[in-house]
Amino acid sequence: MTVFTAEHRLDGDRSRTPVAFMSALFAGGWIWEHPFQNLAAAGWPVLRTQEPICALDRTVAGSMERLGDAFLESCADAGFDEVVVCANSMGGLVAIDLAGRYPERVRAIVVSGAPGLSADPDVGLSVDRRASVRLDSDDFRERMLAALFHRGRYFSEEQLERTAELLRRPSSMVSMARSLKATRRYSIGAALDKVTCPSLYVWGRFDRMTPIEPWRELVAHRPHTEFVAVDDCGHIPMIEKAEEYTTRLERFLTGTALPTR
What is the mean pLDDT of residues 145-164? Predict the structure, then answer.
C-alpha cells in the first residue's frame, strides 16, 4: 500500500528524467510550489508528495529506508521509475540514502538543509523519555519561524495553522520523535560514500537549523557534486529564495540529468 499521496504532471517531455519533490518533516508538498509549477511549465515531468513526514505512521517516519521506499513507491505509482530526487531538511537524508541504495532508479539528487551534522536548534520542542515531542513554550511559532528563515515570514497563516494542527496530534508528535532519533543515528559519511550520481546541494548561507559549513566541508571534492550557497537565505531556499532555487535547479537538470533509459 502506498504511504504517500502525490500530485504529478505527466504532460512534460517524457524523454526527460522526471523530477520528484519529497515533503519535509512537518511541511507538506506546498513548500515546492515554485519549482514544481515552473518545471512543469518548462516541460519537465514532475511529482511532489503531499504528507509531511511526521504525518506518517511512526514505523515509516522513524526509518530512512522505509521513508525512501515509500517515496519511490509513490513515484512508481505515477509511472516514474527513474527520478531526480529533490528534498529539503530530513528529506535530504532520505535522498542521499536512496541514491546509495538505488543507483539504477535515482539519476541525481538535489539536497537542501539536511540535518545530522550539527546540534538540534532550540525552537521550543523537546523529546521526553517516552520518545514523544512536546511544545515547551507559547512562542514556539515565532521561534520556529526565526529558525527557518533569515528574514521575514514566508508561511501563510493557513500554512502555519495547518502545521500547528499537525503538531497537536499525539501520533504526529511520536512520529516526529522517531524521525529525529533516526536522523541523529544516521551515518551520513558512510551513506555519501555510496552516492555516485550527480548531486547538487543548495544551502541557505544563514541556515540556523542546519548550518552550512559542516555540509560544505563534507561534500567538498566529492565527484559529480556541486555546492551552492544562497545569500540572504535560511533553511528553506525553495520558499525564501524561490526564483534563485528554481533557476539553479533547472540549470543543474539541463546540464547533468540524463534522459530516461
Answer: 75
State the Cα torsion 63-261-8-60 to the nearest 10°. Answer: -10
Q: Which residue has the higher pLDDT, 165 or 212?
A: 212
pLDDT, tens digit (0-9, with 9 covering 90-100), for 125-151? 554 444 444 444 456 667 777 777 878
pLDDT at residue 78, as a whole number: 94
Burial of 4 (0-12, 13-18, 19+ CB in 10 A): buried
More confident residue, 35 or 168: 35
Q: Give the integer Cα–Cα distance in Å for 118 and 137.
A: 23
Distance CA 217, CA 107 (A): 24
Residue whose C-alpha cell reads 533509459 in the numeric block: 261
* CA pseudo-torsion sign 247, 48, 113, 65: negative
Q: How large is the average pLDDT for residues 21-49? A: 94
Question: What value does the mean pLDDT take over residues 41-47?
Answer: 95
Q: What is the pLDDT, as a whole number, of residue 50?
A: 94
Per DSSP, the residues of the chain read: --SS-EEEE--S-TTSPPEEEEP-SS--GGGGHHHHHHHHHTT--EEEE-S-GGGS-HHHHT-HHHHHHHHHHHHHHTT-SSEEEEEETHHHHHHHHHHHH-TTTEEEEEEES--SSSPPP-SSEEE-TTS-EEE--TTHHHHHHHHH-SSS--S-HHHHHHHHHHHTSHHHHHHHHHHHHHHHH--HHHHHTT--S-EEEEEETT-SSS-HHHHHHHHTT-TTEEEEEETT--S-HHHHTHHHHHHHHHHHHHHHPPPP-
